[in-house]
Amino acid sequence: MADDFELDTDSLQRRMEGAIASLRTEFASLRTGRASGSMLEPIQVEAYGQMTPINQLGTINVPEPRMVTINVWDRGMVNKVEKAIRDSGLGINPQTNGTIIMLPIPELNEERRRELTKVAAGYAEHARVAVRNLRRDGMDQIKKAKGNGLSEDDAKFWESEVQDLTDRYIKTVDQTLEAKQAEIMQV
Asked: Which element (helix H / strand E) includes 95?
């Protein structure tokens, strides 16, 4: 019964890819002193009785390297969008001109850059924990199969496969963090 055991490494790999994708999304929301529409992705606005992403309430543009604009489609939502941006903790002071909200991106000082690198490190640690949890899931499946008669050699093979996968994704997390921290510290 256990001789035909095969661990679904594709599923593990896909789930680890998801952890990396989530990390990259979180990194995109970190402000690096350059304008980017993706920095607004995590912000939700109370609109029409539910929480709605900003990009569903208006058009986001980056007309200049240090400016993001939002052309809000519904005039009644302008104040709510502006308030959500102020309350988001991005450290940006929105300026309203009719239905257009302008977000000038201020230059980052050294202290703020260091804070952002710590935030990035925290995001990376969450991704590492997610990858390690997936490793544990894989190891638990192997342990269960050993209890059902999987040979010791086969168990060792699958354990090394899971460990190799884990090591590869942890390395990817570390490289992604390193690149983001370098981007943040770049003046």
From this structure: strand 95-97
In the chain, the N- to C-terminal Cα span, in Å, equals: 61
Is this model's pTM higher than 0.85 or not? no
Q: 127 in a domain, yes or no?
A: yes
- Between 5 and 172, name the one with better pLDDT: 172
Helix (H) or strand (E) holding 144: helix 110-147
Q: Which residue is associated with the tokens 């008669």?
A: 149
Question: Which residue is it, tokens 């086969």?
Answer: 154
Q: Which of 42, 174, 35, 185 is nearest to 115 (CA)?
A: 185
* CA 113 – CA 139 distance, rounded (Å): 39
Range of the domain at 117: 8-27+109-185
